[in-house]
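Schema walkthrough. Field components (list of strings):
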Amino acid sequence: MRSRNVYLLIFILALFGFALWSVVPLDRNVFGREGLRLGLDLAGGSYLVYQADVSDIEPGTEDEVMEGVKGVIERRINALGITESTAQIQKHEGEYNIVIQIPGIADIEKAKEMVGLFTVLEFREQDAEGNWIPATGTVTVNGEEKELVLSSRYFKENTEITLHPTTNQVLLLFEMDETGAQLFKQISTRLLGKPLAIYLGDEPLRGEDGQIIAPTVQAVIEDRGQITGLSLVDAQELSHVLNAGRIDVPLGRWADGEFEPSVPLYERTVDATLGQDSIQKSILAAGIGIVLLLVFMILYYRLPGLVACLSLAVYGAVLLAIFKLVPVTITLPGLAGFIVSLGMAVDANVLIFERMKEELRGGRSLGAAAETGFNRAWTAIRDSNITTFIACLILFWLGGTLGALMVRGFALTLFIGVALSMFTAIVVTRTFLRLIIGSQVVTNLAAYGVPVQTERNAK
Amino acid sequence: MMDFVGKKQWFFLISWILVVIGIISLVISQIQLGTPLRLGTDFKGGTSMTLQFSPSVEQSQLREEMAELGYTEATIQNAGEGNFIIHTREITSDEARELAGELGTELDSQVEITDYYFVSGTVAAKTTRNAVIAVIIAAVAMMFYIVWAFRRMPKPFRWGSCAVIAVIHNVFIIVGIFSLLGWLAGVEIDALFITGLLAVVGYSINNTVVVFDRIRENVSRHIRPDFAETVNASLIDTLGRCLNTALTTLFVLLALLLFGGATIHYFVLVLLLGVIIGTYSSVCIAGQLLVVWERREWRALLPFTKRPA
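Field assembly_structure (string):
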């Protein structure tokens, strides 16, 4: 028994040491992790949710198409120099949402623009009255005749920008796929000498000067061609978009049965300084609260209270290490989850000590009282914590749609916190107490919060 | 010895008063505002943003200026240190920046948007529905667990039901308080509020289970012949633990309420109220409900009835 406790102590100390080593200092690189991963509400950044309009997608292939969309969006946003951004797909009741998280200080407008531009660009021609109408052609695809609109869908993703060797004009070189070649041939033959505008939804693309980009068709174009007359910046942007990968679904949101392209369903952008402020305030507040809590525990429970403080220190260090190494994204609600779990960690100790005191008052020896205290408190700790786990699981499950990432952060930190609190109370506090009692260093019952002189047995 | 079970009618009376105040508040709010709780951007859709003015401006000035710029429906909340939280209709981040710029020029101050938040109405409707579903599913799941954990007790279903009734009672009182704060102080509820409520559900069921665990143990040990006396003895046994746990959690929450940031202010308030009411219901309501059920003294639940001899 004794040696088992010593082994446990060694294990706890090793765990504590490892936890401390990995979190002090917090920004030291441990297993490729540096610092805590802070959520967008703390570190600053953007959180965007778009709905996908999958009505034009062949039924059954939506999942596949959306995976492609996700990959392309990640590549595009990362290409803007925003690292660690992520895109996720949420499928919910037959609807597809794409969730984009862009951490840190970043040019959100640029990022949003890129997301908007992921949708298909359409080419338009002018009708007799000068209105821009979609440029269409009839082509044969898989043996079927179809009327299609010329769009960025049919461009290969290898457009290039060069300068004309003699005139130094900016050239945007492009290649078309098979369908596109057929289509472009028809349209360029028909529109020779006339302009072709490029539209995103109902808005024409405009150059730096604010003018509509509408290059004139100068030759019949089949599988390859070039656009001239663009400024370097405009050409780069257009090339960027054409190379962005094909996304066959418009992104935006549904409102009253109408699809509004490029309007996010949900957007949150937090300035980094606000997050900093929140962190500092919360840490200060939590610090004050924790100090009060520890003082109370020691004053009220004496030696066991001190033991509880030690085991809470283990709890805190291990929890931070888990947060850092997993890593768990810490959000403001996550901090709150941590605080509630801290309350429950203390609670487990309180339960045990109260039981122990009762047993001591009942006249049991220290060792027996401690053991009975743990055993009796165990069912309460187990049942109460399992009910909390149930609440956490339901929150996490529903959190995907409800207030999105905030709720999940809370549920996850609370879950981890409560699980760990069971471990610290049952293993850490118990081992410490057993060793102290076993070593017989402190035998005065007053140190355990039970005054010896008064007979409290007959309550 | 304190008699918690004997005084149960008083406790039920207190609870009824709180619940009735809540109901009245919900009704008044429904009449006055058209909604039982003042809904925030998460539930209604629209834009919510934090503007930071340096130097700071007067809230009344800001309100006037917003109205002049056509944002008459906007609500403005002062978050201190020149920060204002503004809730308004759906505007894009471009429009928001334009608005901030105009406010800056008009009020002669440097303005920065530190938090911009935009939610479409459709998401908001789903959030509301999911929130209700979350609370119901959580309550049912926890009830099943308690029924299972107390399966060796006679009539385990009662234990689960009483625990869940106590928890729903807590949630309802907090909802009532926030409804009151909604039409008296303009406090809006958001997704964090729902998170807070679920945390309260977790915390108070935790508390109640600890009390029930003790009753279960004392029933098995036959410490008292009478069930009501057993419950009372168990409540006294667990009283120290309930108060100490509540107290330690309250230390941290109080510190967060006083020194924490404005963003989590009301969230912490939900938790704080939840801990207080959760502790109260564990000690004064849940066990007493078991006794009432056991003795079939249904009239004891109603206030102002004669106490049975």
